[in-house]
Amino acid sequence: MTQLEGLRCHSDAGSQFTSIRYGERRAELGAVPSIGTVGDSYDNALAETVNGLYKTELIRGPGQGPWRTVEDVELATLGWVHWHNAERLHGYLGDISPVEFETAWHADRQRALQAIAATFGAVAKTKSLRTDVSSVTGLDNSRPTGQTFTQTAAIRG
Q1: With contact defined as beta carbons under 8 Å apart, do 10 and 34 qualify?
Q2: Which alpha helices (DSSP H) does 1-157 contain, by range?
């Protein structure tokens, strides 16, 4: 039988998706459910929250509508999803937008990678020093040991 590693089955908590046979078949395939068990706090809570926000802010919100066609709702939904994913201020992110947060995260990560590269550049410059230390200590220079690393780090300061 084929195992589908990493497969996630998205479903609601309807009886057909909570049946024993469905669970057995999902397990045979190696799939995991997208929701928790019925009645627990992981039972589609995030999706329900986003749907509630969408309905409150866009569909039934003040100044919205009237929705004359399905296309009107679809276009407004596209705009709301873009705003929600990119522009809204998010309290968990320090009241900045997700785009600003991701931009800052990537910049921080880039600075960290540059600092690591600079550190490894400094370590490479101490290679001849490590050779000198290993000749004095008798340690194998082909594989850094705790003592060689500690001595190199102490010299670098």
Answers
A1: yes
A2: 15-18, 20-29, 45-54, 70-82, 98-125, 127-137, 146-156
